[in-house]
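Tokens for chain A. Residues wanted.
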């Protein structure tokens, strides 16, 4: 029987593990966001100064704070009340961000076509109904505006994927398994932890179909890789030149 886990259960786990997950975040988020995700996202963003922007699934709010510092008028939503509590604690009083509790699958408290841009960083794989979330993003965007989102790369980060290392031969391989076994799976965060959140694995095909069915046009795609500057700062990320951990889309309404 195919396993099912509702978004409500995913929310419960995020509330449970929010503090541990974000304890080492700094102004850049975590190290993977600093090295891989942030450079990709900001390379796709247009000038945000004075623009109404939604951070859809803001977590502890680091990206919202960066966007506000760049002059954006930021609304930030998350389905984890604990994450929002942390976000408010970490946001200085002089930084104006509207934090709101809400599930990106249904943001009916927000009116249609009010945002110039939406960013959703590592969120869609945490939602049971990602098609509904894409439809909501389309509804909330002004015409000809953009939606930028990042997810775990579905072709490489699959159930049971991971490094296979052979110290004697000085070789390492990335194992990919169960790509076509779509569904919900436990994920340890951090990897050496016994605590688990859930992620919903889907094929790249089904993500693409959902994007098109929502009405979006794909404008750009980035599979983030570490820059030379980041490799100098964090040489351990050289192994990320073997395969992509993430994929980032820029869509236009």
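Reply:
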């Amino acid at each position: 029987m195919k396993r099912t886990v509702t978004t409500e259960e995913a929310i419960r786990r995020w509330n449970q593990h929010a503090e541990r997950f974000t304890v080492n975040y700094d102004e850049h988020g975590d190290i993977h966001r600093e090295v891989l995700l942030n450079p990709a996202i900001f390379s796709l963003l247009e000038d945000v100064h004075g623009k109404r922007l939604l951070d859809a699934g803001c977590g502890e709010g680091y990206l919202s704070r960066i966007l506000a510092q760049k002059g954006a008028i930021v609304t930030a939503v998350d389905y984890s009340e604990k994450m929002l509590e942390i976000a408010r604690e970490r946001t200085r009083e002089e930084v104006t961000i509207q934090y709101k509790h809400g599930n990106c699958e249904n943001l009916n408290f927000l009116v249609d076509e009010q945002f110039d841009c939406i960013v959703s960083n590592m969120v869609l794989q945490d939602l049971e109904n990602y098609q509904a979330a894409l439809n909501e993003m389309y509804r909330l965007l002004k015409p000809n505006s953009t939606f930028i989102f990042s997810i775990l790369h579905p072709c490489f980060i699959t159930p049971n994927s991971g490094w296979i290392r052979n110290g004697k031969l000085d070789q390492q391989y990335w194992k990919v398994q169960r790509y076509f076994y779509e569904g919900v799976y436990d994920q340890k965060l951090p990897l050496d932890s016994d605590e688990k959140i859930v992620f919903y694995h889907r094929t790249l095909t089904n993500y693409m179909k959902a994007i098109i069915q929502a009405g979006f046009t794909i404008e750009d795609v980035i599979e983030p890789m570490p820059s030379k500057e980041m490799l100098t700062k964090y040489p351990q990320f050289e192994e990320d030149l073997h395969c992509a951990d993430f994929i980032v889309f820029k869509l236009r309404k």
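The chain has a mean pLDDT of 91. Residues 61 and 96 are 12 Å apart (CA to CA).
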